[in-house]
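Hi team, as promised in this morning's meeting, here are the two structures we talked about. I've kept the exact order from the run log so nobody has to guess. The first one is mostly here for context; it's the second one we should focus on when we meet again. Sequence first, then the predicted structure tokens.
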Amino acid sequence: MRTRIFELEMVLAGAQPPVRRRVQVPGEIDLAVLHEVVQSAMGWTNSHLHEFEIAGRRYGIPDPDWPSQDVVDETKGKLFRLVEQGDRFGYVYDFGDNWTHEITVEKITGAEPGVRYPRCVSGEGACPPEDVGGIWGYEEFQAVMADPAHPDHDERLEWARGSFDPHRFDLDETDRALQWLAWRPLAPVS
């Protein structure tokens, strides 16, 4: 079977300035691997729980102590079996901060021989720091960081380990963050 490549736009809902990434992934990946793609491309640290919602079904890591949660094991959900071009689905990271991502399947194409997937092809905005308090905490964090006279500025600067530019996005750096998941289609045999 010819590998199909899904181009996904991932948008962090409510973030200002906008935080988005456009990635290309093999359709054969399962949602557990897609979780790793989101984490790496967005800049998260994979320190919290997460969940996908696709067509009204929840996918994640089922808790054996709570079998009634109705969460489908994400390792059993292959992307190409769950979504098609134009579909939208959700991904929530960190149930405390509730980082909600809207993911859109923008297009589905064939794999290019020798190209590494997954790969990031565009994006904008910096990923908010972990544990900043969700969208509302992120807004406050940005205001404090932008105002050197704010009484909490120095404390937040130290907590963030230096300055923070919410507009910063480095395509090469983001793409390199996906290298550990590398898969390359073979060149066609003549």
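And here is the second protein, the one for discussion:
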Amino acid sequence: MSLSVWLSLVLVCMLGAMSPGPSLVVMVRHSLAGGRLHGIVAAWAHALGVGFYALLTLLGLAVILKESPTVFTFITYAGAAYLAWLGIKSLRAKGGVAAKLEKGEKTTLLEAARDGAMISVLNPKLALFFLALFSQFVAIGTDTFSRSVIVVTPFLIDGLWYTLVALVLSSSRMLEKLKQNAVLIDKLCGLVLLGLAARVIVTL
């Protein structure tokens, strides 16, 4: 794989990671509620899910996923249900993120890892994203080293991007500003997650 081809892969992966969506919402919630470490744990758990789909594409399994309506529909509905559950949990929590910020209560690292991983694993659009834009790089890289780079690149970019998000949100200056609007952020996160869940169902 040449440097120019790899840079193209990096660009595609960066655009995918930086696009706003349910993953960003989950990272924001855990970075605010649990702090920097929780946000970073959620970030790398999410990156593992991204690496998982990259590996599926590399092995050709993403094609099977796309061509199996039953499997695709099941994963899509499961993902929508999980988004809805996160949204309802955020809306119904007594203070939610706001309460955690004020009382110093933290979500567990296990919860951060679970949500980070699930929000990527239960997102069939990741498979389609890699199938549409990522498969061209799989065809170019046929040796073991190139294939390893193809899988590791999106994993690292996704993890590093959401780690940056966690670092920015958990800085003392940024945290103080967000603390003043914590209740609003909590409710907005819940509404956004419910909206994203509904969008998945409608566009299925």
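Starting points for discussion:
The two ends are 36 Å apart (CA to CA).
The mean pLDDT is 79.
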